[in-house]
Amino acid sequence: MDANQKKLLAETEGIIDQIKKQHWLNVHFRAFELANNAWKEHIRANARVGAKEVDSPAGAVLDDRLN
């Protein structure tokens, strides 16, 4: 398991813990944060593929804007 997978597993376990404690607002915020990060990574991956296909630095520019 790589570092990113370990981080995601820890986040998921944290959400499960918040559910058990019935801290619903925390659950919603953490779930939103995970979904938002996944969406950003999806956009970055598509930008990198697109930048490679057209041989442009668009992927790097998009990475900077999303961070």
TrEMBL record:
Stated name of the protein: Uncharacterized protein
